[in-house]
UniProtKB/TrEMBL annotation:
Protein name: Miniconductance mechanosensitive channel MscM
GO function terms (MF aspect): mechanosensitive monoatomic ion channel activity
Mechanosensitive ion channel MscS C-terminal domain residues: 778-860
Cellular component aspect of the GO annotation: plasma membrane
Signal peptide span: 1-33
Subcellular location: Cell membrane
Residues of the Mechanosensitive ion channel transmembrane helices 2/3 domain: 662-703
Gene name, Swiss-Prot/TrEMBL: mscM
Organism the protein comes from: Zophobihabitans entericus
Amino acid sequence: MNVENSRYRKVKRYFVKALLSSILLFSTGLALAEEITPPEEPKFDFELVLQDLADQNSELKQQRALQEEQLSYIINEQNNISTQINHVQNTLNTLDEQGEWLSFSTALGETLRQQLLRLPEKPKSQPLDEDIAEIRVKQLNYNDQLVTLDENVEIIEPMANSKQLASYRRLVREQRDLLKALQLNSDAQILELTKLKIANKQLIDAIDNVFEAAHRYFFWVADVNPVSTSYPVSLARDIGYVFFSADTFSQLLGATGEILTSVGTFILLLLAIVFVVIHFRFQARYLQFLEQNSTRVGKVTQDHYMLTIRVVCYSLLMALPIPVLWGVLGYCLKSAWDYPVAVALGHGVNAAAPVLWVFMISAYFAEPKGLFITHFGWPSERVQSAMKYYRLSVWVVIPLVMLVIAFGNYHNGQFAATLGRFCFILLCFALIFMTTALHKAGVPLYIDKKGNGNNLFSRILWIILLSAPWLAILAACLGYLSTSQVLLGRLEASVVIWFGLLVIYFMIRRWMLIQKRKIEFERAKQRRLERLAQRNKSFVEDDSSNNDSVDEPVVDLDVISSQSLQLVRSILVMIALICMIVLWSELHSAFAFMENITLWHSKAATAGGTELDQNITLASVFIAILVMTITVQLVKNLPALLELGILQHLDLTPGTGYAISTLTKYIILMIGCIIAFSFIGIDWSKIQWLIAALGVGLGFGLQEIFANFVSGLIILFEKPIRIGDTVTIRDLTGNITKINTRATTIVDWDRKEIVMPNKAFVTEQLINWSLSDSITRIVLTVPATIDADSNLIIEILKEAAIDCSYVLNDPEPQVFLVDIQEGIQLFELRVFAAEMGHRMPLRSEIHQLILSEYRKRDLELPFPPLQTNLEAIGRKSGRRTYNVGTL
């Protein structure tokens, strides 16, 4: 019974566990099923889709209407631009028709100038480019919307009933038509904007042509009425109007308030003021720096070119803050667009800022310990005399420049004829005082080859510079105000450039002087060491103790470095010429009258074989002269330029470098002549027959000249002779001094110049004593009696060769007993000289030594007492024959 009960309990327990496990598994399965089963999808609202499509179509319709308005506006702009182009072209035609009468009527000029003031402003193309880019982006968006619309149709249509589907398709069709219309309108907008851009370009070109023509016609025409008795009245009236009637001060106060309240302009102005404050704080340190540097300048062991570079850089920086403040102030005034007085004054302030910087740079360079006096060595009295009117330049010239520009820009030059002209005349008088002070101080405008600033070209430049302000005053009084202002401004800018290049010239000259002084100092130290070594290393010498310090050698730089300075001078002149061309090229249209002056006619051949008439004008002749001037300068200074710039860095022999320089000169000369001749109507097609005839002449009558020319080229490249070589040709011996195209110049021992044709050096026998080695051998024949000790004679000759200062130790001297003739011993002494110039001194000195030794040892010389045989060219083999009584 107990066993059955226990079994029953076990079965019951097992059944309960199984039931609980089944419940747990069932609940877990339900949970997993809930997690895996997706949520129920929301119910699709088709009415919402239709409403969204309708809203999109409404927005697209608004965009289409806006596009049509913009397209209409663009077309109207095109019409306005076309009207403006016609107006500008009519103005240009009027200028061309009435231009020749401008010099006869001032009223006509005033009328035409009023028409120029009514010209439209130049349009800007940048906004059009931005609009085109924006439209292209919208066009791409429309295309994307079309693609998205087609994809949505494929998804939505199966879920709609028949009634909803009809409405949906209608809205989709409407949206597709709107998108396509928008794309077409975008294409039309881009096309019309492109046309508008082209029209703007045409308008800009037309306006440029009008202003160029106006500049050409009006430049040499009076732009204001001449000064008359009514001018003082008009001047007083305008002064009263500017200071009392016009709101000048209120506009300046308003512009000042706008500048201070604007963040950008206020920060710029504040930074400029801080820059000026720092400048004044460093003023004392700058003067201390100049004082320290001046103690080192001129001393061989302490002077360095970096001292000059530092002075220049620091002076430029110290002169910069106040002009920067002046320029920032001008920019701030120009940014106040609501106040015309401030804008006009801003233009004047900006124009005066560079002039102020130039004046301040000159002042810092002219400090007592500054660049001009200490580094360049200019006399202090002259520098102070030149800077006599510096305060006048700062406190008078700068305000006058500012006022002249300001009155020219205010209300289209309303006060230019009165107040502007008065300020300009005062400015010219101030320039007269300044240029006179510079001229009296002896400031050179051009340095010649000898380093002298008092030359003809410098005097001509000073005459132009001194007379320019007077001529400007006269032109302004006669009514040519704009012309005088432009020409005087260009002239003063040219003077500034010229003075800048002059300072660069003296800086390069100082660098050469420092290098030369260092070389001379090193040589002096070497000579001193050699002298000390020759005094048996004596440490106590009263006489030499006073000469331990080596004085700075006085070097004439213009003589020692004349070629280098000539090169520097030529390069700077070329730079000045290029700067002048660039500076005055803006006035090219004003000098276009030279193109209207025809000197002669010429025939010009075209590619098709036809000939056209070519007018050779005065401008063509001037251009040809300019090209020839540049060509001549290049040819004259090319050897030094190639040597310093290129050839010295290449491993070339002197002859090769000379050949390259010579051929380069010929090529440049030929190219320059061809270009210059082409401007005056002489081109290759016209001179080719001359070249052909010249070739025939070379073959017959000029064959010797042609042979010498070709021989000159062979000499330059083959280099059988070089400048400085000692040669013997025919019966002539001398040094080569020049190798030209046709002939070579030889200087003989009598210092006579012999011009030898180049053909002789190529076709005849030539002895070059220094082609590869300048060392030459000298053979001396010395006799002795038959009973003399031959070994003693050999020893005497060897000692004489060793004691002779001109005899080289390598190769060493040799002595031989070469023959016995008629009871006489003949000895041969073979020695070597370093160069041809030592041959005769060597023979003289060694003869004296031999005679002295003979006398000391009581040796007799048989008749003849001394025989020498100089084999300069070479010895023949075989027994030597000695002639008695000859050298």
